[in-house]
Amino acid sequence: MPGLGTILALTIMLEVGDIARFPSVGDYSSYCRCVKSERFSNGKKKGSGNRKNGNKYLGWAYVELANFAVRYCPHAKRFYQRKKAKTKAVVATKALSNKLARASYYMMKDNVAYDPEKLFS
């Protein structure tokens, strides 16, 4: 992945452990603190859940990876610019970190290489 150096790769690898303990990509993304913990029903907010649940080090690692990906990957930069035009920069960074967390889940689970065309199509 562009921007993923030795330190971030080791942090992600050691904090995740066995990827098989996450049954779905949504569970992994939630554990990495890349998504909000809000519950909605009929368009109304019913609760916010435990926003401190998950691994704070993985959350940090994926935000750092998103910042580096914007610098080094033109596909990620285009995705970030499109999100930033509609919302705030922080929200765009978090959306990109979620996208990268989902991609890394499939990379670890299925043992496949990173493909930016597939991720940002």
Can you walk me through this structure?
- The protein is mainly alpha-helical and 121 residues long.
- It has one domain.
- Helix content is 61%, strand content 6%.
- The protein is built from six helices and two strands.
- It has helices spanning 6-16, 25-31, 56-72, 74-86, 89-110, 116-119, and strands at residues 39-41, 44-47.
- Strands 1-2 form a two-stranded antiparallel sheet.
- It is globular and about 40 Å long.
- It starts with 5 loop residues before the first helix and ends with a helix.
Poorly predicted segments: none
N→C terminal distance? 16 Å
Strand content: 5-15%
Query: Tally of extended strands?
Result: 2
Our Rg estimate from Cα atoms comes to: 15 Å
Oligomer: single chain
Residues in helix, %: 55-70%
Shape: globular
Q: SSE order in H/E notation?
A: HHEEHHHH
Largest sheet: 2 strands, antiparallel
Average pLDDT metric: 89
- Lateral strand order in the biggest sheet: 1-2
Number of helices: 6
Structural class by secondary-structure content: mainly alpha
Q: How many separate domains make up the residues? A: 1
Fold blueprint:
Elements: H1 6-16, H2 25-31, E1 39-41, E2 44-47, H3 56-72, H4 74-86, H5 89-110, H6 116-119
Antiparallel strand pairs: 1-2
Q: Main attributes?
A:
2 strands; two-stranded antiparallel sheet; globular; single chain; 6 helices; about 60% helix; mainly alpha; about 120 residues
